[in-house]
Design brief:
The protein is an alpha/beta fold. The chain folds into 3 domains: 89 residues, Arc Repressor Mutant, subunit A (Orthogonal Bundle), CATH 1.10.10.1200; 63 residues, no CATH class; 254 residues, NAD(P)-binding Rossmann-like Domain (Rossmann fold). Helices cover 45% and strands 15% of the residues. The chain binds nicotinamide-adenine-dinucleotide.
Length: 455
Amino acid sequence: MSQRKRSKGLGSSQMTDGEEDFSPSQVERYSQDQVNQKVSELVQFLLVKDQKKMPIKKADMLKSVFGKYRSCKEYKDFYSEIVNKAGRTLQEVFGLQLVEIDTKCPTYILINNLPRAEGKYPCRDKEKEKMGLLLVILSFIFMKGNSVKDSALWEFLNLLRVYPGYLEMISIPLTDPREFKFQWGPRAEKETSKKDVLNFVAKGLVALVTGGGSGLGRATVERLVQHGARVVLLDLPTSAGGQLAQELGEHCAFAPADVTSPKEVGAALAVAQKQFGRLDLAVNCAGIGIAVKTYNSKKDKVHDLEDFQRVINVNLVGTFNVIRLSAQLMSQNKPDADGHRGLLVNTASVAAFEGQVGQAAYSASKGGIVGMTLPIARDLAPLGIRVVTIAPGLFSTPLLAGLPEKVRNFLGQQVPFPSRLGDPAEYAHLVQALAENPMINGEVVRLDGALRMQP
Ligand SMILES: NC(=O)c1ccc[n+]([C@@H]2O[C@H](COP(=O)([O-])OP(=O)(O)OC[C@H]3O[C@@H](n4cnc5c(N)ncnc54)[C@H](O)[C@@H]3O)[C@@H](O)[C@H]2O)c1
């Protein structure tokens, strides 16, 4: 670590995950004051992480305290002292308890331990929003050394997206000068029941994403992992899936497999069961496409039957293969209060409805996925397993990235609104929304900006 960085001292407010300035030779030399600074930094780190309502990994805590030396074994005792002190500070100052929720892969959450007041006290249920916001503001003031400028506080609240959404400023009509009122936004109620959110995240959704090495599947894997899920990424051995799984770390496992192979898909599901304990969500993104006319009269060439069968086999049969085997594993899940055991998401295409010239095989395969969505949802309803199909329009994945920019722009302009190609992150966002909304089942959802393909 450079001297320049070290000269910032322990008091510098480094709340990022960046490398730190704690080297082995320095540990013994630090005074109690400096240790307390470290405790304070860890408290800051935990408070900031807690705002995202995501469990906090021990590895990240270590990194925040020791920077690049986090793996040094001799720090074990020292680290424990710092964590214990940070835990005490959190408890005493904020009423937050640092709780380890996973001992295998040490992960912590902060739980609000303030006593629940009855009656007239501000902590009662319908006032939870105020308590949530108050805690955020108090935490920020503490982090900034007990005093902050008004503007800095607003900036921080903006950064956390407290405003708007959580807190909303509404202009009062017919006032001059204009006056505003504050009211709780739709997020306020949801996000103050933080313990529930944390419990949900801590439960850790386990997902299988096929075609997870590229495009829509890749974005889905990334989003799910970012939101605390553990994911088995299924893709061909030649795909970029292995590398992505490695980058995402222990919450993602790569299972090289072909979706059309019962044995290989079975092996991928065994990874989910062995490594993560179960399966809650399977997302079918693996797919291929070809553009061949049924009969090309100019070249006097008929569509190759094997090509047709290959597309049907990967897109339709492969999807069904993953569905049937995933459903078997999901059926072993303990149902939630609603009787829900899992969700299967498939990827069709708008080509299922408006196939273009040369898309006979592709449209047939996607039409098959649309067609089987309802009967499979009906088959699996008694088990509490939902089935939903997404029919994307035009998305900016490697498939389209290879086209010249002019063509991409042209394609984007065909979309009524927003007039652009879809972002794979928007597909991933819909997968998450489907997972969170238990009422959607047996349905095909178009995700296409109102696009209707021309012949
Ligand atoms: N990108 C779009 O605009 C768009 C639009 C509509 C529908 N879709 C559908 O969305 C899905 C994903 O498309 P994308 O654009 O992300 O494609 P992509 O080519 O970027 O990714 C597809 C992935 O599937 C994998 N795959 C292919 N065959 C496989 C097999 N037999 N077994 C396992 N994995 C296999 C590939 O290795 C690749 O990683 C496809 O089903 C596609 O038809 C895409």
